[in-house]
Amino acid sequence: MDIVKLVIWDLDDTFWSGTLSEEEITPIQFNIDLVKELVERGIMNSISSKNNQYEAKKKLQELGVWDYFIFPRINWQPKGKSVNSIIELAQLRPQNVLFLDDNHLNLKEVKFYNDAVWVEDPNFIFKITDHDAFIGKEDKEHSRLHYYRILERKNQERTNYSDNKEFLQTSGIQLAFISEVLSGKGRIFELIQRTNQINYTKKRIAEHELDELLENTDYECKMIRVKDRFGEYGVVGFYALQLSTNRLEHFLFSCRAMNIGLEQFVYAHLSYPEIIRVGAVTAELTKEPKPNWITVSEDWNQIIDEDNETKPIRLLLKGACDLNQMLHYLNYKNLNLQSEFNFVNVNNHPVPQAHSFILLQSGIVSDTTKSYLIDKLPFWDESIFSTKVFEQEYDVLVYSLLLDYTMDLYNSKRTNVLVPYESYSDFINETKEQFVSRCKRHGFIGMDEEFYDDFKSDFTFQGQIIPEDLRNNLESLRSQISKPIIFINGAEIRSPKNNVSEFGKAQDRHRILNKVLDDFCAEHDNAFLLDVRKFVNDEGINHSIRHYKRHVYEEMAQELIRIVGEISKVEYKRDEFRFKLKKISKILYENAKDIFFKLKRVLLAK
Fold this sequence. Notes:
The protein is of the alpha/beta class. The protein contains 18 helices and 25 strands.
């Protein structure tokens, strides 16, 4: 039996007792503990459940276990396709996956779509702990879960690109060849024994044989370490090239490195040596050139003690396409990038997650109201109110306000929530026929005559955010966030004439809101401005006032790096001052304590 690397759980009457949509469920503590224990064994967990995602996520958060699941699929779709989607996203073989469900029809459906998946009913759950297939590998630091979190972020952002190569071009993939293989012998042995999908020779060897191989001077042995702008993946590959025959004895990569062209890059880098492939692999090797989206880093080719290395600056990027386009030029800096960009939902509609009213309402709108609006609005989804901004697990927040500059606001009569939708009065100026025709042209799902009538009836047009409200929103953000914030403003040139609805309006509006942002940043410490007015002129505009030419995004990225550098210098000086103050306080305390005891001895002697 194959080892299990992923367990996919049904929720109702499997992970917990009862049906969430019909009654109050009863948690099963054994299952909660088991999910956490599996993660500590390096075995991942996911969810395939027919439920309302918002309600299920809320319940799992209450149980303190939501963050232990990867690629959850909580919807009303058939489970066979849902399970296959999870396996594909996790980049695993079906043979290494267990699916748990109380409904025998669901189990049969999953087997029908992929016979290699192992399926069981809930009675099997209590056998997992001691089963040989679930031994795993100790991972108390949850490093494997961390790698999958990176993969989740990558997959979410990939939806913003029509072409996977374009996405890879902006990912900033770097690899290092590590020659000091003895220090990573344990990791190499693990890769040899466990990898299948990108293991070309599939030669399983014992530990003593690996020792002999690594010490054999006829073999060039190197580990391959990879990182990109989403994070570090660690050692994900190994090769052993026999020099006398120019033949690859071992050539293998972890599934963490799948679908980025790494195996082809390394094969081309080695000048296409002989290799005898054994069994199936996910990517064939060719005599084609190296993928040009991967670079070799010469200053990153040692195993680094993470406790002693200089930690990168953590940036959380929140905004629209301007920030997204800058990412390619931020790749090779000492930055740890997290992002919260607008994205396209399952209805093929952009979700306006970065508007300041959405951000601020995320913490005050009730769960019932959120659920009502998410179900009602096809241009929203369950992630609309999800944000890490207020958790402050970053060093600097970079926030683009372009959506505030652009989008109209509608007030929900039932909930009094402000909803960003469309721009420059486009929706209210359209007839029903024009609206439906436009939505069909863009492929928007659920945006039909019924939605048009419903939205017109239940929502009141407010227009774009007024300067006073923008100022109040900025003040509210500043009061809730202690970390430095770098704001990105809007250009102040006329839009191209093909944008008829906003032509002549956007420039004036940008000037008004830029003045609000200028004044705010001037009056507040730890508020900084990345001023696009320095870089955007008539030649820098692409097809609207919000979309720039490539060289503009590069210049903006360089300016962002400069501002972050200035902030980090100030923070370093503050940390240095705090350290010195702490040291002085300790010396004063020790001296005071010494004086006290000396005085006490003198008094007792008398």
